[in-house]
Potassium channel family protein (Clostridium gasigenes), 255 residues
Amino acid sequence: MRKRVIYELFIGLLALMISIMLVLELMIVLPKEVLLSFYYIDLIVWIIFVIDYFGKFLLSKYKTTFVLENIIDFFSIIPMKIYLIVFRLLDFAILINSSQIIKIVLILRLVVLILKFKNKIKEAVRINRFNYVLILTTLVIVISAVVISLLEKMSFGDALWWCFVTFTTVGYGDVLLTTSLGRVVAVILMVVGIGFIGITTSTIAMKIINGGRRKIKNNFKRELIETVKYKLDNFDDLSEGDIDDIYKTLKALKK
């Protein structure tokens, strides 16, 4: 169970990584070297997705059910060329130019990958919410720092410092953003930061509440056991009703 959750989380993080790459492609004019690196990374991840999908498909007992339940995974392995061919067959080129078609295809793929990311991590988050939220939050801060360093042309160290300060909603104001996209990243970081603080607070509160409940339960259990021991020490004085009560008490404690 745990291995499966970790594996699904890994697939989800790969989908998140490709999503971020697509966002950068859509928003920033990237150098050819970076685009080439993105292409090879995308190709490797696509191969992993294909192996993952068809491996699970072959192992599943109910093929039709598997396809219907994993429709997002299916769309995530469709190559971009197929999307472009479909657009051309539908004569969208008459209405919009080829560069706009490519952007639309990238956005569609981005939506599919975000949905894939959400589907893959939901089990991991459900089982151990705080730990995985902490991991995802760290990824968001680091990735945001990379994006800010590219957009604002600042060092990665300064960008990381700014992201951490913004995320914690402190906002010293020692680093100011000049680009519109940089400010969009700032808004996203603030929203994520507020959410993280809320989750952290609720997790700590639940730990304290559950800890108090366990302590009360253990104290009550200990008192019952001491009562049973005291009665057993005076076994000769016990009535049939007392013995029956002891039996019921021990049976209840065993559950």
User: Anything to note?
Assistant: The domain at 1-127 is CATH 1.20.120 (Four Helix Bundle (Hemerythrin (Met), subunit A)).
